[in-house]
Design goal:
Elements: E1 2-6, H1 13-24, E2 27-30, H2 31-38, H3 48-68, E3 74-77, H4 84-97, E4 101-107, H5 110-118, H6 130-139, E5 148-151, H7 156-166
Parallel strand pairs: 1-3, 1-4, 2-3, 4-5
Helix pairs in contact: 1-7
Length: 172
């Protein structure tokens, strides 16, 4: 199953995807780690072109992993999926591979996002701050595909339980 972690920066996508991957024996493919591995720091640009390139790499990696083990849970993280075309591309790729997909949209209060973004200075994405949160929020297109909305202001254990239920999994 391909699981798309959607939501604004600082809403807990990475924390939740890592917890779920650990619980389910899945793998997280993180755009920010992909970008850092592919490009030297002077070549990192937070452009749409570079984001799209990283997304293509992420999908190719997911396809490779599914060919090895079609029952695997693969989480795509590090993208906001704030544009409908991004979701169509990822879900279309999953469909072409014959893989089910789910969207987990992480949400939290603006204040929680602000605190999280301020308290994570070591994050690989150097452009990740509250100004980015506000800019993405202003342009975020509503996700109209089936999704589960997870309020990450709740304790992580509750978020994991809700997400597992929406993925059709039972908590262990």
């Amino acid at each position: 199953m391909l699981i798309l972690m959607a939501g604004l920066p600082g809403t807990g996508k990475t924390t939740l995807s890592r917890a779920l991957a650990a619980e389910l024996g899945g793998i997280v493919i993180d755009k920010d780690q992909i970008r850092a591995a592919l490009f030297d720091p002077p070549d990192i640009e937070y452009s749409t072109e570079q984001d799209e390139f990283c997304m293509r790499v992420m999908l190719k990696v997911a396809g490779y992993l599914f060919r090895k083990d079609s029952a695997r849970k693969v989480f795509l993280d590090g993208l906001t999926f704030s544009r409908a075309y991004q979701l169509r591309r990822a879900t279309g790729y999953a469909n072409a591979l014959g893989q089910p997909w789910r969207i987990l949209e992480c949400v939290c209060s603006d204040e929680t996002a602000r605190k999280r973004l301020q308290s994570d200075p070591e994050h690989p994405a150097r452009n990740r701050d509250f100004d980015l949160y506000v800019a993405v929020k202003q342009k975020f297109e509503e996700i109209v595909l089936p999704k589960a909305v997870i309020d990450t202001d709740q304790p992580l254990e509750d978020c994991v339980e809700q997400a597992m239920y929406s993925l059709g999994e039972e908590a262990v």
